[in-house]
Amino acid sequence: MHKRLRIYTDGGSRGNPGPAGLGVAIHAVHTDGSEGETIATVHEYLGKTTNNQAEYMAIIRGLEKAKALGADEVEMLMDSELAVKQLNGQYRVKNPELGKRFMEVHNLRQQFSKVTFRHIRREKNTEADALANAAMDEGH
């Protein structure tokens, strides 16, 4: 069991809204803070929704999987600057549907001793991006 996990998430839609999918890649974190192997992945076709909804659903699925794996501390990395800034309290959530997803994330993060959200560049998020695209491909 890994107490600390680093989770890469990505959600996307082809069209906005359009056919959407999510991808999650979960890595172990060693005691020295270095990243370990991929220990789990998730990809899911979401049907027709927006890119931002897909991003949030990826975060939710990542946190759910981390809990199932027994994680205590989670570092969430994603290329959605909007989601990171909303989850870190820098931006308000104005869209009511996104507000529902935001509250789901808020409730899930209470189950961990520490959850952080960090923005990364798209080229650093290739594993989660490939999973999200595979989900969209499977949904067609």
Evaluate the radius of gyration. Answer: 14 Å
- Would you tell me the structural class of the helices and strands? alpha/beta
Number of strands: 5
The major pleated sheet works out as: 5 strands, mixed
> What's the overall average pLDDT, rounded?
97
Strand content: 35-45%
Shape: globular
Low-confidence stretches: none
N- and C-termini, Cα separation: 36 Å
User: Residue share in helices?
Assistant: 25-40%
Put simply, the count of helices is 4
Strand order of the largest sheet: 3-2-1-4-5
State the order of secondary-structure elements, H for helix, E for strand: EEEHEHHEH
List the helices and strands and how they pair.
Blueprint: E1 4-13, E2 18-29, E3 35-49, H1 51-68, E4 73-78, H2 81-87, H3 96-109, E5 114-119, H4 126-139
Parallel strand pairs: 1-4, 4-5
Antiparallel strand pairs: 1-2, 2-3
Helix pairs in contact: 1-3
What report would you give on this structure?
The structure is a single chain. Helix 1 (51-68) runs parallel beside helix 3 (96-109). It is built from four helices and five strands. The mean pLDDT is 97. It has helices at residues 51-68, 81-87, 96-109, 126-139; strands at 4-13, 18-29, 35-49, 73-78, 114-119. The radius of gyration is 14 Å and the shape is globular. The protein has 140 residues and is α/β, with parallel strands linked by helices. A five-stranded mixed beta sheet has the order 3-2-1-4-5. It starts with a strand and ends with a helix. Helix content is 38%, strand content 35%.
